Predict the structure of DEAD/DEAH box helicase.
Amino acid sequence: MSFEALGLHASIVKAVFQAGYEKPTPVQAEAVPAAIAGRDLLVSSQTGSGKTAAFMLPSLHKFAETEPAAAGRTPAQDAQAARARGERVRFKAAQPKMLVLTPTRELALQVTTATEQYTAHMRRIRAVSILGGMPYPKQMQLLAKNPEILVATPGRLIDHMESGKIDFSQLEILVLDEADRMLDMGFIEDIEKIVAATPDTRQTMLFSATLDGVVGNMARRITKNPQVIQIMSATNRHENIVQKVHFVDDLSHKNRLLDHLLRDETMDQAVVFTATKRDADMIADRLNIAGFAAAALHGDMHQGARNRTLDSMRRGQVRVLVATDVAARGIDVPSITHVVNYDLPKFPEDYVHRIGRTGRAGRNGTAVSLVNHAESMNVRRIERFTKQTIPVDVVEGFEPKRSAAPRSGARPGWKPGDGRGGKPGQRSFHKPAGEGYRGGDKPSGQREGGYRGDAPRTDSGYQGQRREGGYRSESAPRADGGYQGQRREGGFRSEGAPRRERSGFGAHPRSADSARRTFGDR
Ligand code: AMP
């Protein structure tokens, strides 16, 4: 299958070749023809699968087909002419033809950058990002150009809608990118409000890691007779990523092992995930002192600093990015060879997003989780979610004092290479539910990376709470003298609590009483 065979306009085919794409990815091969035919789409595919082009190329095709031959004046040009005539000019609301909603600013910028590549040979198609944290005057300038395509995070978009700066009456295409994540971040009301402001005649494409549960319900409400596309590519199953668990005894063991792993010859660039912003800063500092070119990336950083850090990563000046989940969403740096979970993620789906930072654009990657014995339950939850086992591996010279948790029938005292449970040096946790191992070499109340072994959880965890940035949960101080995880990015919020747009920068209060709208008949 070639891009030409998908029926795309010649100017788009030329641009994707220039972007280095030789043939469509599986999600593109399925989604592009269906979208060109005008179908609504519900697509379950992971980040890294080429989903941006899957929704953007057919949309651009539609615009290319209807692109006016004679260039008319933009509202900004009209305004300039009116001012020249001495008339008073009022701001005219932007009337985009396409809206892409994304959960994070990084992803929005990534979508906009990709769109600029794909429109290299199209006249009069502009894509702009409308993001929390961006100065309002700058956004007004962008909107005054009446861009055809808006890529936005929901909170800031609502502000502009409510102040009459954006009018969706001419909208033809609505895309919800990483819809599961937007719902997870508590954007449901904003999404409902935005969808309700768009015409019923629109084409809707929803992309999500899963189409089950709440996302599935919303997806069905906002689409009409959608074509459902579920891509289980090797990338989706992360077959191109070697996954491992290394057990650690304590933080000092964990830090020594991290240093060792980062010196691996096969490592080009790595992302190290921490549970808290504070740990991200501290570990980045420590790694710098140890001679690694490291940088932190988290939601307390200004957008400019976040962009500069990502640019340095892309240019290879930063080799190790120490990041929290929220900030790392949407990182697309193909040379990332390793992902290290210094702390396990709070939600199993975040594990999938984290490891998807490596093995991008058809490459291979390695994802290593450094796991305290008390956290073995959380590895099992991830395994249940991904329906894959994660082998336990031991690095020579860094063996944990305690043998791995007895989860797969192995007896305590199991040693690497004793012939039990898979390859020497590797063993899986997998075992039927019910054989609980009450790990815990720390007193309860102390936690590392947000987990407390099998202890009853009241603080959230995998129990379905929604979370978002702006709120903090304080963890107990650590007794072992290591990094004290105190602030958790993407903290928790109880239902109905007022929230701020996630991120610590440019956050603006959004009232809890913002209109609850239903989706109507769509
Ligand atoms: P996405 O899933 O949209 O985030 O894309 C992941 C990465 O794959 C990005 O770096 C894209 O530029 C790249 N990509 C998308 N489509 C193709 C393709 N057909 N061939 C090669 N690379 C692609």
User: Anything to note?
Assistant: The two ends are 33 Å apart (CA to CA). The chain has two domains: 4-230, 241-515. Residues 405-522 have pLDDT under 50 and may be disordered. Residues 21, 24-25, 28, 47-53, 332, 334, 360-361 surround adenosine monophosphate (CB under 6 Å).
